[in-house]
Design goal:
Layout (H helix, E strand, L loop, with lengths): L9 H17 L10 H22 L2 H27 L5 H28 L1
InterPro entries: 23S_rRNA-intervening_sequence (IPR012657), 23S_rRNA_IVS_sf (IPR036583)
Pfam families: 23S_rRNA_IVP (PF05635)
């Protein structure tokens, strides 16, 4: 498959899917968290595919790799914030485990894409 747009990238597609899942989970958080953990978690989740898109749109491999690094940082943020949500009992263990597994896979995909781009640079 030829890549014409960031929207063609599986890693971007998964990032968007996971951001939507995070929004579903945070809807169950207490309303008092709307500007706290729930907002932080949503922003970090949205940051992952957003940075993939921005990096791809920049047009340079160096920039794309840089923005993939930012996405990886956001993956770590989401994972941390999910674990905090679990610890304070806003989200159940099963949900966190499922999301963490998906975010680990997303991180692996991001690192593989980075390596591929670095090898061609």
């Amino acid at each position: 498959m030829e890549i014409h747009s960031y929207r063609d990238l599986k890693v971007w597609q998964l990032g968007v899917d996971l951001a939507a899942e995070v929004y579903d989970v945070t809807r169950l958080f207490p309303k008092s968290e709307i500007f706290g953990l729930s907002s932080q978690l949503q922003r970090a989740a949205v940051s992952v595919p957003s940075n993939i898109a921005e990096g791809h749109a920049r047009g340079s491999t160096k920039d794309f790799i840089h923005f993939l690094n930012i996405s990886l940082g956001s993956v770590a943020e989401v994972e941390t914030q999910l674990l905090i949500g679990q610890r304070i009992e806003y989200v159940g263990s099963d949900t966190v485990d499922q999301l963490l597994h998906k975010y680990v896979e997303l991180g692996k995909m991001l690192r593989a894409l980075q390596r591929s781009l670095e090898a061609r640079a």
